[in-house]
Write a structure and sequence with these properties.
By secondary structure, the chain is an alpha+beta fold. It contains 23 helices and 25 strands. Belongs to the transpeptidase family.
Length: 680
C-alpha cells in the first residue's frame, strides 16, 4: 500500500517536472537589447508598423493605441510621398571616460534616409530601450522624435505647396497666344442666401447664361460645406456691381489661362482644363495634384511638360498652434518655360475672319525659312470657355453643330484637287517626259483612254483643241494632266511625287497625319489619271500642300516647316533636297505667275497690280461615282514670285454653287492686299 502511494507521488512529481519543462520551452526566448533594436529597424524599413508597435514599452503603448501608432506612421509617410526608406544602426565614438550603462537601459544610434516629394531627408538619432521588470524583456521607449528628431507629442507633419506659374505661349512678335491672366469669379454660399435664395439663384443663372439646375447642382456638390465659397461662373466688373449687397453672393479673383485670339487660334493653342481622376492616376508621379490644370489640346498639350514648371514644396513640422517647428525638406518653385512660336497673330486673325463661319482650313508660310505664320481651322470654339467654365448648353451646341467647330481641320487630310497639278507638272518635267513646248491635241470636254475604261472618263471645263503645259496650268485642264501621267507611267509618277514627303510625318512637333499618294500603290491607269489632278487616293493637309510648293521657290528643295523659335532650331532648313531641278522649278513658277496674270486664267481673280502674284486654283470633288452629284471643296494657293515672303494656302468646304474655287480666291486676295508685301 505504502509502495503504491510512493509510486503515485513519484509519478506526479515527474509529471510536474515534464510540464514545467514544456512551459519553459514554450516561453519566447529573451532577446538582447541589440537584437530587439535590429528587429525594430527591420520592421520599420519594411513598413510593418503593427510589428513595431508590439516592441514598444508598456508605458509607450499606454500613451497611444496600436491604431493611432499605425495611422501616424502611415499618414505621415503617405503625405510626404516617402520612398527609399533606409535605416541602419550606427556607432557613436567611445567616450574618454566611459560610464557603465544601467543593466535595464540601452541606447542605440541610427541613421535614417528617405526620399520625399520635396527631396531627400536624412538624420541621425538615438533610440532608447528599457528592460521591463514585469517580463524582463527589452522594449522600445517610443517618442515621436523617433520619426523625426524635432517632433514632439502633439506635432504634425504637413506639406505646403506653392504653384509654379505656367509658361506662356507667344507669337513671333511677343504677343500672347496663351497667357496667364485673372478673372473675377462669382460664387455663392448656399447657407447664406437668406429668404430670397431661389430668386438669387435664378438671377445668377440668368446673368451667367446657366440654368438654375446647373447652379443648384454646383451648390449641392459633395465637397460643399456650410460657409464654402462655391464658384458658379466668371464675370466682369459690371457683375460685381449688379450683385452688390445680395446675401450669399461674393466674388473672388482667380488666376486663369486666357487666349487673346479666342476662336481665331483655338485649334492651334488648344486649352487647359482641370486634371481628371484618370489623368491624375497616370501623372501623380510627375508632380501633378488634384487641383492642377493640364493641357488638353493643341500647343498647350504638346508643350505641357515644359509649360507646367515645378511646384514648390516644403515639408514642415508644425506644433499644436500651427507654428513651424522645423523644415524637413524643400523644393523651390520653378516657373514653366515660355514658348515662342513663328505664328503672326495679326495674320492668323485676319485669315480666320475671312472664313466668316465657313468650314475650311488654311496655312501660311514664309516659304524660304519654313516659318509657319498661321494655321487656321474654321469654324472653331472659344478656348477661354473651357477655362472659365463651360456650360452644358454650350458644349451641346458645339457637339450638335453640323460644321463641327471642335474638329481641327488644319491637321485633317483632304483631296487636294487641281492644286496638285503643279506637282504632276514638276515630276513630268524633272523626269524628262513632259516638256514646256509639247502640245497635246485634246478634243471635247470628255476623254477616256480606251474601251478598257468602260464608262469611266475624265472631264475638263474648257474645250481647247491644242494645249501646252502652261495652258494646262493656266486653265487647269484635267485631261491634259491625266494624259501626262499616263505618258510617265505609274512608277515614274509615283516615285517622283513621293519625294515631296508623302507617307512621312511632317518634321515639326505638332502632330500632323501622313499624307497619302496611294494607299497600296497605284493599281491601274484610271487611278493614275485621277491622281494626276489630285483626286484618286491623294490626301494632303493644307500645310503639306504649301510645303509641296516650296521647291518652286527654293531651287527644287522642300523647305522644313518651323513652328517654334528656339536656339535648338536646325541650321539646315531643307526637308527634302533636290526634289526637282532648279530649271524645272523656274518653269513651273513662271506658269503659275501666268495663271494669275492672264485675264482668262482660272486664278486671275488673285491679280494685284504692282505685285507678281503666282497661284493655282483647285476644286476637289467628293463623290462615290462618276456623274453623280456631290460636294466640292475649293482650294487656292498663292505667293508673290518676286518677294517670296508669304505662301498662303486656303481651302473652303462645300463651294459648289458658291463660285467654286473663285470663292476661295476672293478671300485669299484680301489677305494678300493687306499682308502680301510684309517681310517676315
Amino acid at each position: 500500500m505504502k509502495t503504491s502511494k510512493w509510486l503515485i507521488v513519484g509519478f506526479l512529481l515527474l509529471l510536474l517536472l515534464i510540464t514545467g519543462c514544456r512551459n519553459e520551452a514554450s516561453k519566447p526566448k529573451a532577446m538582447t537589447s541589440e537584437q530587439v533594436f535590429d528587429s525594430y529597424m527591420a520592421a520599420w524599413q519594411k513598413g510593418q508598423y503593427e510589428d513595431m508597435y508590439a516592441m514598444l514599452s508598456s508605458d509607450s503603448q499606454t500613451r497611444l493605441s496600436q491604431d493611432q501608432f499605425v495611422k501616424r506612421y502611415f499618414s505621415i509617410y503617405e503625405g510626404i510621398g516617402m520612398s527609399q526608406l533606409h535605416i541602419e544602426r550606427t556607432t557613436l565614438p567611445a567616450p574618454t571616460k566611459p560610464t557603465p550603462a544601467p543593466e535595464d537601459k540601452a541606447t542605440y544610434t541610427y541613421h535614417a534616409s528617405l526620399m520625399t516629394i520635396a527631396g531627400p531627408i536624412e538624420f541621425n538619432y538615438q533610440a532608447k530601450l528599457i528592460k521591463e521588470n514585469s517580463t524582463m524583456y527589452w522594449k522600445i521607449d517610443w517618442t515621436p522624435s523617433l520619426i523625426f528628431p524635432a517632433m514632439k507629442d502633439n506635432d504634425k507633419v504637413t506639406v505646403r505647396t506653392s504653384k509654379a506659374m505656367r509658361g506662356e505661349i507667344y507669337d513671333r512678335n511677343g504677343e500672347g497666344l496663351a497667357i496667364n491672366g485673372s478673372l473675377i469669379i462669382l460664387g455663392l454660399a448656399a447657407d447664406r442666401l437668406g429668404p430670397d435664395a431661389e430668386k438669387t439663384v435664378q438671377s445668377v443663372a440668368q446673368y451667367l447664361g446657366l440654368s438654375t439646375d446647373e447652379v443648384n447642382k454646383k451648390l449641392k456638390a459633395s465637397w460643399v460645406k456650410p460657409g464654402n465659397f462655391v464658384p458658379i461662373g466668371s464675370t466682369d466688373g459690371k457683375g460685381v456691381m449688379a450683385f452688390q449687397g445680395i446675401e450669399g453672393v461674393s466674388f473672388q479673383q482667380k488666376k486663369i489661362r486666357t487666349y487673346p485670339l479666342a476662336e481665331a487660334a483655338a485649334h492651334l493653342t488648344g486649352y487647359v482644363q482641370g486634371i481628371n481622376a484618370e489623368e491624375l492616376a497616370k501623372l501623380k508621379d510627375q508632380g501633378y495634384g488634384p487641383d492642377d490644370q493640364l493641357g488638353k489640346a493643341g500647343l498647350e498639350q504638346l508643350f505641357e511638360k515644359s509649360l507646367k514648371g515645378q511646384d514648390g514644396v516644403r515639408i514642415v513640422i508644425i506644433d499644436e498652434n500651427g507654428a513651424t517647428r522645423e523644415t524637413l525638406a524643400s523644393k523651390e518653385t520653378v516657373a514653366g518655360e515660355n514658348v515662342q512660336t513663328t505664328i503672326d497673330s495679326g495674320l492668323q486673325r485676319a485669315i480666320y475672319e475671312q472664313y466668316q463661319g465657313d468650314a475650311g482650313s488654311a496655312s501660311a508660310l514664309q516659304p524660304q525659312s519654313g516659318e509657319i505664320l498661321a494655321l487656321v481651322s474654321s469654324p472653331a470654339y472659344d478656348p477661354n470657355l473651357f477655362v472659365s467654365g463651360l456650360s452644358a448648353e454650350q458644349w451641346n451646341k458645339w457637339n450638335g453643330d453640323p460644321n463641327i467647330p471642335l474638329l481641327n481641320r488644319f491637321t485633317k487630310l483632304y483631296s487636294p484637287g487641281s492644286i496638285f497639278k503643279t506637282v504632276t507638272a514638276a515630276v513630268g518635267l524633272n523626269a524628262g517626259v513632259s516638256s514646256p513646248d509639247h502640245v497635246r491635241n485634246i478634243q471635247g470636254l470628255y476623254w477616256t483612254k480606251d474601251a478598257s475604261w468602260g464608262n469611266y472618263y475624265v472631264t475638263r471645263d474648257r474645250d481647247v483643241p491644242n494645249e501646252n503645259l502652261r495652258d494646262a496650268l493656266v486653265f487647269s485642264d484635267n485631261i491634259f494632266f491625266a494624259q501626262e501621267a499616263l505618258a510617265m507611267g505609274k512608277d515614274t509618277f509615283y516615285n517622283g511625287a513621293y519625294k515631296f514627303g508623302f507617307g512621312e510625318p511632317l518634321p515639326l512637333p505638332y502632330p500632323f497625319p501622313r499624307s497619302s499618294l496611294a494607299n497600296q500603290g497605284i493599281k491601274n491607269d484610271i487611278q493614275l489619271a485621277d491622281s494626276a489632278y489630285g483626286q484618286g487616293e491623294v490626301q494632303m493637309s493644307p500645310l503639306h500642300v504649301a510645303l509641296s510648293y516650296t521647291p518652286i521657290i527654293n531651287q527644287g528643295n522642300v523647305i522644313a516647316p518651323l513652328l517654334v523659335k528656339s536656339a535648338s532650331n536646325p541650321a539646315d532648313t531643307i526637308w527634302k533636297r533636290d526634289v526637282i531641278r532648279p530649271e524645272v522649278a523656274e518653269i513651273v513658277r513662271q506658269d503659275l505667275v501666268e495663271a494669275v496674270r492672264n485675264p482668262k486664267g482660272f486664278a486671275h481673280g488673285a491679280y494685284i497690280s504692282g505685285m507678281n502674284i503666282a497661284g493655282k486654283t483647285g476644286t476637289a470633288e467628293l463623290k462615290q461615282k462618276k456623274g453623280e452629284d456631290g460636294l466640292e471643296n475649293g482650294w487656292f494657293i498663292e505667293f508673290d514670285a518676286t518677294l517670296n515672303q508669304l505662301l498662303l494656302t486656303m481651302m473652303v468646304e462645300d463651294v459648289k454653287k458658291r463660285g467654286g474655287s473663285g470663292y476661295v480666291v476672293a478671300k485669299a486676295k484680301k489677305i494678300f492686299l493687306k499682308y502680301g508685301k510684309t517681310t517676315w
